[in-house]
UniProtKB/TrEMBL annotation, chain A:
This is Phosphoenolpyruvate synthase. Pathway: Carbohydrate biosynthesis; gluconeogenesis. The keyword Cell membrane does not apply. The lineage of its organism: Bacteria, Bacillati, Actinomycetota, Actinomycetes, Kitasatosporales. Residues 19-338 form the Pyruvate phosphate dikinase AMP/ATP-binding domain. Pfam families: PPDK_N. Catalyzes the phosphorylation of pyruvate to phosphoenolpyruvate. Keywords: ATP-binding, Kinase, Magnesium, Metal-binding, Nucleotide-binding, Transferase. Its EC number is 2.7.9.2. PANTHER family: PHOSPHOENOLPYRUVATE SYNTHASE (PTHR43030:SF1). The keyword Nucleotide-binding applies.
From TrEMBL, chain B:
It holds the Pfam family PEP-utilizers. It comes from Streptomyces humidus. This is PEP-utilising enzyme mobile domain-containing protein. InterPro entries: PEP-util_enz_mobile_dom, PEP_Utilizing_Enz, Phosphohistidine_dom_sf. GO terms for molecular function: transferase activity, transferring phosphorus-containing groups. SUPFAM superfamilies: Phosphohistidine domain.
Length: 355, 606
């Protein structure tokens, strides 16, 4: 399945360029290429977005709305933001694009063996996820989207998130020109997660690269990513793949599919489950193992979103939803070790006395 | 982390003695006891039970190990190498068990010891192999001198030739000086023992502490697996058993080595069986000296049985190996696999370092790997070989005095302290000289009987893991390294056991296993261990290696990541949790347990 505007992400053999599918999709492709377990997905290419913007009427109205905007004026920026978002998401999509997206979605449903399969629709901006700018999470993600029409709406919603207030102010502050903007969109099989969260292939507290930090909450990873719950925290030794320390968080709520499979539901977690670790030792080790591989195949420390599919063991149920280069410690050296180079008796004397 | 619990361990002065053990204090020398004159000082100190070396009640004669080992350990730190931060250990016997308390160097004396330590220890590290070769010669000399000690019965009369030669000192003199020599050589053996040991641990510690800085929170196990050797002399006795088992199959004599109760008769039958049997016996004899100078215990107990003295032990292990070979199992350790694993782990940690740090990593690791094999191998030379000869000679003397009427059973001498034995020996030679009857023949039999009852009463109670007041923090590296005692361990002892039926300890060898527990209180229980069980013991000895081929995992009460159980389990790729504090008392044989050697937990399942 491949067309001008929708490209499968299931085979790295096709290798669409990162500037065509955006950073997020490129990261997923790298994982696919390394044989990592990622959900089925396709990318709505940047070309689709650009095709939309070939319409001079849309370009002019967006340009007019932005004219003379002072990003320091937050109230005004918000008004402009919602105006542009309305313009973009309401603009008619060329039928060729619409057909490509619908066809790709139908193919995805067929592959999953489920009509109207729920998907996650994620922004995959060309300037997002680059290692040098901590731009992750700037743009919108729509979860549990079902049906071709809803998918198209979600894609348009993602496009429009290029003009959220925070994106506008960020671009202004960092001098990113609107002319360079591009947005691909990732449409990914929705994983009904028993537990989900993030994994970092270094310890963000001190930059120690011999550790993997895993954070986990119940249900979908959304409450963990947005910081709405205090997740479980697992510190794992990367070389031995053994857990070093576990701190169980208070996971007050979780996001799960609504009964009947229509949409999502946020619900409280009862006291017992709140204090129960989301992951067994085996699951922690499996996530760490896969994260270590992802780091190796990407060649740099990674931040990974993962999910464990409900009803499956870690060995077959683990999915990596996205992976991006870690941007904070990657630019610095690791912990200041202050280890004396002396060895033998002199080294021992210094180690014992702390001198 | 400081210890936040308000808890204290029991005062040694307030714990009631076990029923029937009244008067136990008088069995031990005054300097080994908590004395009322020092109550205030001793009550406010922290004492941990060294059940790693003394898991069982210590008989009066066996205090020789407490005295000499702890004394020599301290001597090398305090007076020989001048370790900057650590003197030795105070030691006490309480209710028959050994308690230790580290003696720190006063803060204002640390700095002046540093240059001295660097000079002295530096000399050893700089000349390690040469000095170690010298050490081996010294140990072998000690073994030879011990072998030469004889406790021959006293003659009825001196010979006429002696009279005519004006021979002077008599056989009683030989007996008394022989005993003094036995004790002095034991003392010397323990001096040998610690000549390299503290430095071996220190070199390990230097690398360990550096790793802690490079990789905060690195598991102890990670460092251990980088440093630890794989092909050590300590494993040689077990390797010899495996070799003999394979040879039995090659020579076609395997059926003679699989009787239900192998023993001396097995060897006799082989000798009478013809050429292949005799060939096998030649190989057995070649292996026996020195490799079967190997104790079923740890060298500290008179009851230790040495393979050389009781062939049923090595023959039993050989039988198990033969049976496994016949079932088509592999009995060899995967040495290339262990080596590859070690190099992979080392390479991965090293690659994670900033390149500027790698020379320090390499240098410290080189010293640690050079020094570390001694930490294991000395065990064979001292605890097994030298102490094996020592206990054999001591048993000979005990038999001599039993024959003279001092006590009813062969090993009863060990109910006396070594100074009391010297008195009894003088009593014996005095009676020989006077022609009268030794006082000991009337005094000792009921006294030995009384002591036997006290020992049995003491043995019915397991020791408290610690006594006194825990320190605000434990920084003394040897205590942490050698005994696995850190603040977390103390807190878990104070908290007792968690409510979920789970015990926590040191994650000492990775992996998980489930199975029925087999609680082993000593080498005498080893033959009960069945295939697929999980070994639960207060502490294990290196010589238990052959049973590690049968069990699925091991759990101990005491010991850190460098304890014998931990090292052997890593060698045999079995999960292990050490330092649980009380697994061997809480878990009963037959209970199904789950051992998570990665997380350091033991869960009772039923």
């Amino acid at each position: 399945m491949s067309s001008r505007y929708a490209v499968s992400l299931e085979s790295a053999a096709e290798e669409p360029a990162a500037d065509l599918v955006g950073g997020k999709c490129a990261g997923l492709l790298a994982l696919v290429g390394a044989g990592q377990p990622v959900p089925r997905a396709f990318a709505v290419t940047v070309d689709a977005f650009r095709a939309l913007f070939t319409d001079p009427a849309l370009r002019e109205s967006v340009g007019a709305a932005l004219a003379g905007l002072d990003p320091a004026d937050l109230a005004r920026t918000e008004t402009v933001s919602s105006e542009i978002r309305r313009l973009v998401s309401g603009h008619p999509v060329p039928s060729e694009i619409e057909e490509d997206i619908s066809a790709a979605y139908r193919a995805l449903c067929a592959a999953l063996g489920r009509p109207d399969a729920p998907v996650a629709v994620r922004s995959s901006a060309t300037s997002e996820d680059l290692a040098q700018t901590s731009f992750a999470g700037q743009y919108d993600t729509c979860l549990w989207i079902q049906g071709a029409e809803a998918v198209l709406d979600a894609v348009r919603h993602c496009w429009s998130s290029l003009w959220t207030t925070r994106a506008l102010t960020y671009r202004a502050a960092h001098g990113v020109s609107d002319e360079e903007l591009g947005m691909a969109v990732c449409v990914q099989e929705m994983v009904d997660a028993r537990t989900a969260g993030v994994a970092m292939t270094l310890n963000p507290v001190n930059g120690d690269r011999s550790k993997i930090v895993i954070e986990a909450g119940w249900g979908l990873g959304e409450p963990v990513l947005s910081g709405e719950v205090t997740p479980d925290h697992y510190l794992v030794d990367k070389v031995l793949l053994v857990p070093v320390r576990t701190v169980v968080g208070a996971k007050f709520h979780e996001m799960v599919p609504a009964p009947g499979g229509q949409g999502l539901l946020r619900r409280p977690v009862d006291d017992a489950r709140r204090a129960t670790p989301c992951l067994s030792t085996e699951e922690v080790v499996e996530i760490a193992r896969v994260a270590k591989q992802a780091e190796r195949s990407c060649g740099a420390p990674q931040e990974i979103e993962w999910a464990l599919a409900r009803g499956l063991p870690a060995s077959s149920g683990l999915r990596l939803l996205q992976s991006r280069a870690e941007t904070v410690w990657s630019r610095r050296s690791g912990p200041a070790a202050e280890v004396t180079a002396a060895s033998g008796a002199a080294g021992i004397a210094k180690a014992l006395t702390g001198m | 982390m400081a210890i936040t619990s308000h808890g204290e361990f029991p005062s040694p002065f307030e714990l009631p003695e076990p029923p029937g053990a009244e008067g136990w204090q008088r069995l031990y020398p005054y300097h080994l006891l908590f004395q009322p004159e020092r109550r205030e000082e001793d009550e406010s100190a922290f004492w941990f039970c060294d059940s790693q070396h003394w898991p069982d009640v210590i008989k009066p004669f066996e205090t020789i190990g407490v005295d000499f080992a702890v004394k020599c350990l301290g001597e090398y730190n305090t007076r020989y190498f001048l370790v900057p931060t650590s003197y030795g250990l105070e030691r006490r016997i309480h209710h028959g068990y050994c308690y230790l308390s580290p003696v720190p160097v006063p803060a204002d004396r640390v700095a002046e010891r540093v240059p001295e330590f660097e000079r002295r220890a530096g000399h050893y590290f700089g000349h390690w192999e040469h000095l170690l070769a010298h050490w081996k010669r010294k140990v072998l000399d000690t073994v030879r001198e011990l072998e030469a000690v004889r406790f021959d019965p006293l003659p009825q009369t001196r010979s006429v030739e002696d009279i005519e030669a004006g021979a002077g000192p008599d056989a009683s003199d030989a007996l008394l000086t022989g005993y003094d020599r036995l004790i002095a050589l034991c003392h010397r053996a323990w001096q040998h023992h610690f000549e390299f040991l503290n430095l071996g641990y220190a070199a390990y510690l230097d690398f360990f502490l550096a790793c802690r800085r490079w990789f905060p929170d690195i598991p102890d196990l990670g460092v251990a697996r980088v440093v630890q050797g794989v092909d050590m002399e300590l494993f040689r006795p077990d390797e010899e058993l495996k070799r003999l088992a394979k040879l039995a199959l090659e020579l076609g004599v395997e059926s003679r080595l699989t009787p239900a109760d192998p023993g001396v008769h097995t060897l006799e039958a082989l000798a009478a069986s013809g050429r292949p049997g005799r060939d096998w016996l030649d190989a057995w004899d070649a292996a026996r000296d020195p490799w079967f100078n190997f104790t079923s215990g740890n060298g500290f107990y008179a009851s230790d049985v040495y393979w050389r003295d009781d062939p049923s032990l090595p023959l039993g292990y050989i039988r198990d190996y033969v049976l496994r070979l016949l079932r088509g199992e592999t009995i060899d350790r995967d040495l290339p696999g262990l080596v590859a694993d070690r190099e992979r782990i080392t390479g991965e940690y090293r690659a994670l370092l900033d390149p500027a740090e790698r020379p320090a990593f390499d240098a410290k690791l080189r010293v640690a790997r050079q020094a570390y094999p001694y930490v294991e191998n000395h065990n064979f030379y001292i605890e097994h070989w030298t102490m094996g000869v020592f206990w054999r000679k001591a048993r000979e003397l005990s038999r001599l005095l039993r024959t003279a009427g001092f006590w009813p059973a062969d090993g009863d001498m060990f109910h006396l302290t070594r100074d009391e034995v010297r008195e009894a020996l003088f009593d014996h030679v005095n009676a020989w000289a006077s022609g009268g009857r030794p006082m000991g023949c009337d005094y000792w039999p009921p006294e030995v009987e009384r002591r036997r009852r006290i020992m049995a009463a003491l043995a019915r109670r397991r020791p408290e893991p610690a006594l006194g007041v825990p320190p605000p923090s434990i920084t003394e590296p040897f205590t942490i390294m050698l005994w696995g005692i850190d603040e977390e361990r103390i807190r878990s002892w104070l908290d007792g056991y968690s409510a979920h039926g789970a015990l926590t300890g040191v994650p000492a060898s990775p992996g998980t296993a489930e199975g029925p527990a087999r609680v082993v209180h000593g080498a005498q229980d080893l033959s009960l261990v069945q295939e697929g069980e999980i070994l639960v013991a207060s502490v294990t000895a290196p010589s238990w290696a052959p049973v590690f081929g049968k069990v699925r995992a091991a759990v101990t009460d005491i010991g850190g990541v460098m304890s014998h159980a931990a090292i052997v389990c890593r060698e045999y790729s079995l999960p292990a949790v050490t330092g649980t504090g009380g697994a061997s008392t809480v878990i009963a044989t037959g209970r199904r347990i789950r051992v998570d050697g990665t997380a350091g937990t033991v869960t009772v399942l039923d």
